[in-house]
Amino acid sequence: MNVLVVLIPVSLVLGAVGLIAFLWTVRSDQYDDALGNAARILLDDDNNKPADSEN
Predict the structure, then answer these.
(1) What are phi and psi of 15, to 5 degrees?
(2) Residues contacting 31, CB < 8 A, separation 6+
(3) 25: Cβ–Cβ under 8 A, 6 or more apart, which residues?
(4) Are 9 and 3 in contact, with CB atoms under 8 Å apart?
(5) Burial of residue 49 (number of CB atoms within 10 Å: 0-12, 13-18, 19+)
(6) Could you write out the DSSP letters of every residue in 36-54?
(7) What pLDDT does 41 receive?
(8) Whole-model pTM over 0.70
(9) The pLDDT value given to residue 52
(10) Is the pLDDT of residue 1 over 90?
(11) In this predicted structure, what is the pLDDT of residue 50?
């Protein structure tokens, strides 16, 4: 029973850390446009090539 005195607060702290990390990812727009990156890699977009420095 003494183990529960330690494990319950530890589990609550770990749960709070996980919740804070989740809220941070939501606020920093980590889940916006989830399919955009997957589709963007398939596009052949030549307009974004850097200009040649030799010309």
Answers:
(1) -65, -40
(2) 25
(3) 31
(4) no
(5) exposed
(6) HHHHHTT---GGGPPPPS-
(7) 78
(8) no
(9) 62
(10) no
(11) 62
* Angle at 48 (CA atoms; ends 51, 43), nearest 5 degrees: 145
pLDDT tens digits for 2-55? 999 999 999 999 999 999 999 999 999 888 877 777 787 788 766 666 666 555
| Residue in the block written with tokens 């996980």 | 18
- The amino acid at residue 8 is I
Q: Read off the tokens for 48.
A: 């974004």
Place of tokens 């989740």: 22
